[in-house]
Amino acid sequence: MQWKNSRERFGALAKLFHWTSAAAFIGAYIVVYYVIWFLDEEAPGTLAVLNVHWMLGLLVGALVLPRLAWRLCDVQPHDPPGSALEHRLAHAAHWGLYGLLIVLPLTGYAGTSLHTDFGLFAVPSFRDTALFDAMASLFGFDWESFEPPVDAVHHFLGKWVAWGVVGLHVLAALYHHRVRKDDVLTRMLPHGRRRDN
Question: Which residue ranges does UniProt annotate as crossing the membrane (predicted)?
Answer without folding.
Answer: 12-36, 48-68, 89-110, 160-177
